[in-house]
Amino acid sequence: MGVFDRLPPMDHMRSEKMCFVQLIMPAESSRLAVTYLGELGLLQFKDLNEDKSPFQRIFVNQVKRCAEMSRKLRFFSDQINRAGVRSSVRPALEPDIDLEELEARLGEHEHELLEMNTNSDKLQQTYNELLEFKLVLSKAGGILASSHNHAASAERELDENIYDNGVDEGNAYLLEQGVHQGAHGNSGVRFVSGIILKSKALAFERMLFRATRGNMLFNQAPAGEPVTDPISGEEVEKTVFVVFFSGEQAKAKILKICDSFGASCYPVPEEMVKQRQIFNEVSARLSDLEVTLDAGIQHRNKALESIGSQLWRWTIMVKKEKAVYDTLNMLNFDVTKKCLVGEGWCPIFAKSQIKDCLQRATLHSNSQVGTIFHEMDTIKSPPTYFRTDKFTNAFQEIVDAYGVARYQEANPAVYSVVTFPFLFAVMFGDWGHGICLLLGALVLILREKRLSSQKLGSFMELAFGGRYVILLMAIFSIYCGLIYNEFFSVPFHIFGKSAYECRDKSCSDAHTTGLIKVRDPYPFGVDPSWRGSRSELPFLNSLKMKMSILMGVAQMNLGIVLSYFDARFHGNALDIRYQFIPQMIFLNSLFGYLALLILIKWCTGSQADLYHVMIYMFLDPAGDLGENQLFWGQKELQILLLLLALVAVPWMLFPKPFILKKLHKERFQGHTYRFLGTSEMDPDSEPDSARARHDDFNFSEVFVHQMIHSIEFVLGAVSNTASYLRLWALSLAHSELSTVFYEKLLLLAWGYDSLIVKLVGLIVFAFATAFILLMMETLSAFLHALRLHWVEFMNKFYHGDGYKFKPFSFALLADDED
C-alpha cells in the first residue's frame, strides 16, 4: 500500500471545499448587501424561517409589490405579442430609476393600455355591428325585392286562373289573401332579418320550422365576406337570413330563437329608397370608423414599442428586486439590535470576495456599523459544487442526472469526458458517419452565440446543450471507424496495401479462391481484405467481443481504484482493507485473468478455446488443459486465483460489520467514563453525543447492508462484464446495417442503366443513413454508453446522494420562470 500512499490526493476531481458562514447585517445596509451578493453568486442562503408561511415574513409587502409589477410586465409582454410589435434588440438607454418610480411608471402604462384597449374594443364592436348591418341591408334587400317580384307574378297568374280556368270562389279568395299578405306587410305578414353563423344556419332553420309549426318562410343568402367574431376575435363565415311570419306570438318565438342561436337581428325597411339611404349612411360611418381604428392602432403600437424597448430591462430589475426580498425573508430579524442574521454555505475561495461585497454595501449605504462575517461549525453535510465551463458542463450534467456527488466525493465526470464518447464510438465506429456528426457539432459550436440567445425546441435545445459531447463522440467515431476501416461500411486502403493477395494471380474472385499473406500486417486498423471474405464475420466477432471484455475489465478496475482514493481521502481504512482489496482480488482473479488470457492469445497466435478454459476453471480446476494451455504454470495459477476469489467473498462480507460494532462499543464506553468524571456535562444535552451515536448504530442493519453490497458486487462482477458485450453487439449491428443499406439500396440501384432509378436509390440511401444510422443509431449508442457509465462503472465507487450548491445569483434569474 506504500505505492498508493505516495500518490497525490487527486484534488482536481473533487468538489470545492465549502464552509458554513454567518452574516450579521445592519438593517439599513442589508438590502444592498444581498444585492451585491446576488451579483457575485457564490453564497447559498439557508432559510431560517422554515416554520413561517410566506405571509408571516418580514418583507411580505415588498414581495407583493414586486409580484404585482411582474404581473403588469407579463401583461405588457402579452399585449406586445398579440399586436405583433417588434421590440428593439438593444434596449434604449435611459437613466437608472428606483423601484418606486418604476412602480408608478408601470401603473401609468397599464392604465393607458387598458383605456386604449377598452376604447378599441368598443369601436371594433361598433364597426362589426355596422358591417353586419351593411351586409344584411345588401342581401336582405335583394331577398325582399325578389319576393315582391314573385308576389306580382303570382297575382297575375291567380287572376288568369280565376277568370280563365274557373276556380271556385272560396279557394280563389284564400289564394288572393295569401299573395297580398306576402307582398304587403300591412296585411299581417311580417319579416325579421338578421345574420347568423353559417355553421348554425341549418339547425336555426329547423328550430324555426318546429317552433312555428311550419307557418313561416325562411330565406337565406351567404354574407359574401368574412366577419370578425366578437368573442374569439377570429374571422368567420356568416349567413344573412329573412324570416317571413304572421302574428305577434310567432314574432316572440322567432326573436327568442334568434337570441339563443346568437343571431343578430337588424331592421330593414321594405322601400328600396329607404334601404339605399340607410345603406349609404352605414357605409359612410364605416369609413369614418376605419380611419379612427387605424389611428388608434398606430397610437397603441407606438406606446407598446416604447414599452417594449425597456421591457427586458424592467423585467430583470423586478426579478432582481423580488429575489433580493425573497432572500431577505430567509433571514432572522433581531428587533433589539435592528439587524438581520443570515446563514449559508460558500466555497472557501469565495470568502474574500464576499467580504469585499459586504464592505462595499456598508460604504454605499452610509451605514455606521459594518457587517459581521464569520465561519461556523456544523454537523450537516455541505453542498456539492463543481466549477464547470461550457465544455465540461454537459458531462457534469450527465453524471448529475444519475445523482449529485457527495461532498468531496470523486467526480466521475472527470473521466467521463474521455470514456463516454470513446465507448459511444466503439459502438458507432464508422468514419463516414463520424464526419457527418462532426459537421453537425461544428455547426452548433460555430453558431453558439446566436443559438444561445434564441428559444429552441426541446430536441434542438438538447443537441445544443450537448454540442461538445457530440463533438468528442464524432472525433472518437472517426478514430474507431479508421480502426474498423469502415466508411459508410466500405473499406479503403488508406494506410497502405493489404497484407493479403489472391492465391493465384489469374483469379478474378478473391472471396472464393482464398487469400494468402504476402507482406507485413496492415499498419493501422482492420485489413480491408477481410471485407467480403468467408471468414469476415467470425474474425470481426472474435475481435470485437474480446475487445469489449478488455475495455469492460479496465473500466471496472478504474472504478474500484477510485473507491480506494475516496476511502483514502476520507481516512476510511476499513473500506480500503475490507472492500477495496477483496473487490480487486475477486474481479481480477476471474475476469482480470480472462483479459490476460485474451492478450496472451493475441500475442502468441494460439488456437486455445477460452470458453473451455474459463468453464473448466470452475468445473475441473485440477484437470489437464491439453491444447488450451497458453503458458507454463497456468493450471496452478488458475487454482490459486479460484481460491483467492472464494476467500474474497467472506472477506467482503463479515469483518467490516463486526469491526464497526466493536469500534462503536469502545467509543460509547470511553465517552461514558469521561462523563462520569465530570458532573457539569450532561451527555443527553448534546445532539452529537456518544449516547446519541451509540443509539443510532444498529448492527443488524449494518450487517444486512454489507451483505447486500457484497452479493451485489459478486453477482454484478459477472453481469457487468457480460453487459460490456453490448459494445460488440451494437458495433456489429451498426456495421451490418450500414452494409445492408450500401449493398441493397445504393449498389442495387447503381446496377440499373436508368438515371431515375439511380437517383431514387441515392435519395433512399441518404434518407436511410440520415434517419436510421445517424439519428436512431446515435441515440441507441448514446443510451447504451450512458448505461455502462451509470451502472457498470459508477456503482463501484459513486454514492451520488449529495445535493447541489445553489447560490443566490442574479445570473440564474434569466433562466427561471415566474
UniProtKB/TrEMBL annotation:
Keywords: Coiled coil, Hydrogen ion transport, Ion transport, Membrane, Transmembrane, Transmembrane helix, Transport. The keyword Endoplasmic reticulum does not apply. The keyword NADP does not apply. One of its GO terms (biological process) is vacuolar acidification. InterPro entries: V-ATPase_116kDa_su, V-type_ATPase_116kDa_su_euka. Essential component of the vacuolar proton pump (V-ATPase), a multimeric enzyme that catalyzes the translocation of protons across the membranes. Required for assembly and activity of the V-ATPase. PANTHER family: V-TYPE PROTON ATPASE SUBUNIT A1, VACUOLAR PROTON ATPASES. This is V-type proton ATPase subunit a. It comes from Miscanthus lutarioriparius. The lineage of its organism: Eukaryota, Viridiplantae, Streptophyta, Embryophyta, Tracheophyta.
